[in-house]
Amino acid sequence: MAENYTDPSGNTEAFRAFANPETAPAEAASRTSLIIGAAVVAAVLLALATWLAFG
Description:
Layout: H1 12-19, H2 24-54
Keywords: Membrane, Transmembrane, Transmembrane helix
């Protein structure tokens, strides 16, 4: 092994960072885009229904 290798189990903070990587921002971004996409689809369907009803 390299001399500068740090064993994550050597200290508690390093182990927690190794065992629980931060992934919260990626999930939040995914959810936001899902909500925006659903709103766009709903608006298109509403416009289509209105056009069919009155057109």
